[in-house]
Amino acid sequence: MFDMVVICRTEEYLKFPVKQLYTHIVKRKKYGNIRIEPRSEISFYSDIMKLRRAERRADVNPKEDVAVIQYTGGTTGFPKGAMLTHYNVVANAYQVAEWDPKASPNDIFMTVLPAFHIYGFTAANVGMLFNAKLVVIPDPRDIERVLKAIHKHRITTFAGVPTLFNAILNHPKVRKYDLSCVRVCISGAAPLPVEIKRRWEEITGGKIVEAYGLSETSPGVTANPCYGLNKPGSIGIPFPDTFAVVVDEDGTILPPGEIGELAVFGPQVMKGYWNMEAETAKTLINGWFLTGDLAVVDEDSYFYIVDRKKDMIIAGGYNIYPREVEEVLYEHPAVLEAAVVGVPDPYRGETVKAYIVLKPEFKGKVTEKDFDKFCRERLAAYKVPRIYEFRDELPKTLVGKILRRALREEEMRKSGA
Fold first, then answer.
1. Across the 417 residues of the chain, what is the mean pLDDT of every consecutive 10-residue run?
2. Residues near 342 by Cβ (< 8 Å), separated by ≥ 6?
3. Which domains does the chain have, with CATH numbers?
4. pTM of the complete model
């Protein structure tokens, strides 16, 4: 149980008259009348700040005391509360900050990711470490507002997710704004399609590097170097003081080129899952965190995520990784977004289904046959989707990550499984 729950309200950070407008018009219209019943364990942030400051700082053991209970996105199952210590959070901010040798207080960071997500939380912390200017965008779905902010404030650095970069690239007014100020961007939370990386660097002239992390690792684990060898499709190499290996089911470290589970060790690895001792014991072994992601490492020690273990499709005895199929679909000029999942099949066990969001100018002009031909020219026959479904949008998390799990659950309900 918690001794105290502190509630922070948006209006507490606003000045008159915006505070009154938000409280009485915007908030009420969007959420209705919200009433919080008085309880002894509940306090408001504004009331806490009115209290006399403590005469001494609280005693904190950085490596043991929990600073944040960060809930996982629940993209492959029920969300779990990762207990991140003060040491975890601060260490990872410094690890990520070391990644860009050209970063300085002269940089202008844009934060477009919600702070309740560990990716947005640490991205903002890194900007503050540099004492850089932070431009905060409250709703990353407002793409024109993002474009205006880049153009107006001359943004040099920001972190985002592939769907955000893709939406910017495909916005009808993208050419209206000057994006040449963008020096470097980090893409995380989901695989960055190679085609999106290519187009982003072509339009901005800056770099975009794919990184990898998890709620359980505060989140940064690996990234492609900003100015060194950058390998499209790779999640790069470990951040400073981070160890990463690929292991088999028995925990044996595999050599380069062999697929196994990615395991991580470093100062950013969580203390464990909140009130989930059994789950903690399965995933955290002698300080090593088993990520649940299938990966491979090459001769240069660059890592590649093959896919989530739970997302792998087994069709007719063959292992099929959705990311490989999605990469091919993104190469098609008509594709705005794509997701691939395994759906029940009486003969093959599972079969490959592709969900596609078309760019507006291609709607009604391409068919399943067009995509089948396109994929057969680029994939082994057993990897080619057998089913295509065109949609106006795909289910996403609040941070913009496409939810394959939601699509699988839809199919399971349809099949009655």
1. 75 81 77 78 82 68 93 69 96 94 93 87 91 87 93 95 92 94 91 90 93 94 93 93 95 95 97 94 95 93 86 83 91 95 85 95 94 95 95 87 88 74
2. 312, 313, 314, 315, 320, 322, 350, 351, 352, 353, 408
3. 5-50 (no CATH), 86-308 (3.40.50.12780), 312-415 (3.30.300.30)
4. 0.76
